[in-house]
Amino acid sequence: MAFNHPWVLWLLPLSLLPILLERSHARTYSWVAMLPSDPLSNLIGLLLKILASVSLLAIVLGLAGPHSLEHKIERLGTGAQIALVLDRSASMEDPFSGAPTQAQIGETKSVAASRLMTAFVNSRQNDMIGVITFSNSAMYVLPLYESRKAALAAIQATAGNSLFQTNIGAGLTSAIGLFERMPDNGSRAIILLSDGAGRVSAPVQQKVLDWLHRYNITLYWIVLRQAGGISIFDPKYDDLSDANMGDTQLPSEVELYHYFKTLRSPFQAYEAEDPKSLATAISDINQKEKKPIKYLEKIPGRDFTHWCYALAALMLTILLGVKYLEIKTWKTGI
């Protein structure tokens, strides 16, 4: 048990005042020694004092904000630890062609990605999901967490306004950092979703290569390709290198793809030209990343404030009811 405002507990001794103080009736009459003893009245008077003390006690506890502590329960299931790395560059606001239904015509890339990643998360029950977005730099959104509700809220937030640049390197390194202090449950993956690629410096490339291997992470890259645009799988780029290209550089997407193929950890790339092909890529990842995992589910603490106030309200209602009957009996002479 813990309290949001533990200093309020210093007021708890006030709850003893109704018991310690005399009832007003004891001072109304000058001398009642000749009256017979009335144990029932004395008992009722004591009970009323206890009710008043309990009401004060409940009010003070309610003001202190009592709640139970968070605890963890070990769960077994089928799933993975997945970090979603989502592009927030300005080009993600371009329309995504080939929407399958009339209602989705003109849907932007970011909205389509958010919609399909939401469906992906909803289809999986036991994953731990984290979310990183990137544009000029990486933006930390959600750590690896078992709550689907939190993951869905984070994904839906990525469909908002976008920025300008595409700093994939920062997004990847930030995503790998999510796994740094997490126990390895056997299935780890990063899903990188972007519509292009900026240049990644050699130090960052080496860092990503080492860290992916160290933390046993599979990388999936989904490229949202413009219709008629460059394909990272185009065979004409296979035999090209910086040595024989002269002053001409490979397109950034192709260069990044060739770099990813040198990773010592598992890697798979996909191209999506429309929402249907994007859904196919996500479905393929969904089938691959289903392995038995053991994870700790966080159970949040319960708030008992409303129970304290309800108890205080009940005690005060009883006291007011008794007071009303007392006044009514006095007036009627009963």
Defining key terms:
alpha/beta, 334 residues, 2 domains, two-stranded antiparallel sheet, 9 helices, Rossmann fold, six-stranded mixed sheet
| Main sheet specs | 6 strands, mixed
Helix content: 25-40%
Count the helices. How many?
A: 9
Global outline: elongated
Strand order of the largest sheet: 6-5-4-7-8-9
Count of folded domains: 2
Cα distance spanning the termini: 49 Å
- What is the CATH class of the largest domain? Alpha Beta
Name the CATH superfamily classification of the largest domain. Answer: von Willebrand factor, type A domain
Classify the secondary structure makeup into a structural class: alpha/beta
What's the number of extended β-strand segments? 10
Strand content: 15-25%
**What do we call the CATH topology of the largest domain?**
Rossmann fold
Specify the oligomeric state: single chain
CATH architecture of the largest domain: 3-Layer(aba) Sandwich
Q: Note the run of SSEs as H and E.
A: EHHEEEHEEHHEHEHEHEH
Can you put this structure into words, describing what you see?
The chain has 334 residues and is of the alpha/beta class. It has 2 domains: 100 residues, no CATH class; 226 residues, Rossmann fold. Helices cover 38% and strands 19% of the residues. It is built from 9 helices and 10 strands. It has a 6-stranded mixed beta sheet with strand order 6-5-4-7-8-9, with helices on both faces. The chain has a two-stranded antiparallel sheet with strand order 1-2. Helix 3 packs parallel to helix 8. The radius of gyration is 33 Å and the shape is elongated. About 3% of the residues have low confidence.
